[in-house]
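INFO batch 0412 | record 1 of 1 | parsing
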Amino acid sequence: MRYLVVDTISERMITMKENTKKITAMVLSLIMAIGMMTGCGGKDSSGSKKGEMIVGDNREQNISNNGQQNLDDADGLEWHYSEEAISDMDINTEEYNYYAENSYLSVAEHPLSTFSTDVDTASFTNIRRMIENNQNIDPNAVRTEEFINYFKYNYEYPDGDDKIAITTELSDCPWNADAKLMQIGLQAKDIDVQDIDSNIVFLIDVSGSMADENKLPLVVQAFAMLAENLGENDRISIVTYAGRDTIELEGESGANYETIASTLAGLTAGGSTAGAAGINTAYELAEKYFIKGGNNRVILATDGDLNVGLSSEEELKALIEEKRDKGVFLSVLGFGMGNYKDNRLEALADNGNGNYAYIDSVDEAERVLVTEMNGTMFTVAKDAKIQVEFNPTNVAYYKLVGYENRLLEDQDFEDDTKDAGDVGANQQVTALYELILNDGKADGDDSKRTLKYQDDVEYPAPEKIDEKDLDKELLTVSVRYKEKDENESKLIDKAVKLASYVNKEEMSENMKLACAATMFAKTLGNSETKFTMNDIRNYAKGLKLDAEELLKLIALYEDNYQAPVEIIE
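INFO prediction complete | emitting tokens
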């Protein structure tokens, strides 16, 4: 019976794909006709005619920016359009927030650096979608920490009752010869989830914008894979929303896979998007079937394009903040392109005790919901925050790599009412700091400086490091987190000494992989620092750690964006 249901899902996907192609062809034909009537002979700013055929060797060039089509005329000739023409044809309404790259801060003035943990990976897979489709890459879609955290590292596991362990490494910075690079790795405890019952609500956007083959059909496949791993004591509810919210399934046993899968297979897309109503209903069901000591979670699947009721980022943030203290966690899964609203989905996950992933393929759905199901579904440390205290005697300046939208006020670290990131079973959090040590290379005023939060305290100008005294501490990494069902945080910390430094030749695979991911993100994002693909590849190749996905993407980026294209004017 299970195989019959899966076949039904596949048939629906094939049918929808064929229908989508037909509709796309009709729309494109209409656009081309309108273009010929209204813009015949017009030129773009570069002097090339819109709709002009490219007579070069690269006849497989795709039209970029959200869905690529090679457009053939009646004689079978391929027509290629300038970027301006493409923009006219294919409107991109995707939304991303802009965050300026972190800058260097003086230790004398800012001795503490505080931020929330982040296990999200949506930015990496979303950019992967853009590269695979040869689309224009929006630099605002790049969040460096999510590139770093997409990959798995070899960190030490926690001992005893601790849910998190800290690993650090100090080496040379590949992109700043005057700086050292420090890696902080958090490893969450892996737990046996066999005896933990789950109460899960699938909250599915079935509005008209979800009709594309890489949206609702992919959602159906993803949730069907997850449902196969559930048991008799697990409870599944399915809520859909379009113009209104609908309860499709309520409190079904995980043992009844056929019922769950057939309900998913029967979903169709159409109508407007009233997401707030669906969120309220989903949380009501999660509370109704709440399992004390269990895994209570809402999983939202959407492209984020809400247009009825509460729809702005601020409104959604306020709504989800009301729900997060009810003991129900949130996972946000993003789908699709063209109208994708990354800013709204990230706000939901960041403010709702949740995590955020972008699903660009069946393989990624399997990775998030099956292979790494424990991390996605079972939280072991909530409201996890990191605070680094720098020793002004030995460190002059520092810069946090990424996490621009995760920064906290220093006093928030000890405030247990302050929301922060949640870490799932066996998950990891990785962060990098650039450090300018007091070795004579630091710039700036040598006069006394006043601390930001302690106006009555003054530190003298930092002294140079004594090379014979290598046991001096550079900094201390502190982590606060709460047990899943507790409201009081626990504190763990680790001091980092200069003696732990290793040069770039001895750099571990952990740091090499993190450096490669960072360099790729900097090259694609808003950073002023850029690298060649060979520079990045040199750090990622030959590792025992799994860097295959990064190496594949580097090669694809070279093929799609760095090959010259000959245009005949």
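INFO post-check: The two ends are 60 Å apart (CA to CA).
INFO record closed
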